[in-house]
Specification:
By secondary structure, the protein is an all-alpha fold. The chain is built from 3 helices and no strands. The chain has one domain (7-86). It is 79% helix and 0% strand.
């Protein structure tokens, strides 16, 4: 039985709530006639929501920061060299 305190389930619930809000806003956007102020407002809201939802994903440990990648690459190469020297 999943625990309400388990971080996995807490995050899973937060993600599901975000998906539900995004889908609801998108369906509202689909029903609004084009070139209206309301559609423009919802378009901006959707763009903001998507960007803000993706930002934590892009800034966690899997970011594409070149400096961090080069440090990780140097670490991997160093470990490989150490393994080769042992054999």
């Amino acid at each position: 039985m999943p625990s309400a305190q388990d971080p996995f389930y807490v995050v899973k619930e937060e993600i599901q709530e975000s998906i539900d809000k995004l889908q609801s806003t998108f369906h509202q956007w689909e029903r609004i006639p084009s070139d209206t102020r309301e559609q423009l407002h919802l378009t901006k809201e959707l763009i903001f929501f998507i960007r803000s939802s993706l930002k934590p994903t892009l800034t966690d440990g899997t970011s594409r920061d070149e400096k961090n990648n080069s440090n990780n690459n140097m670490e991997v190469e160093s470990n490989l060299e150490g393994d080769l020297e042992e054999n």
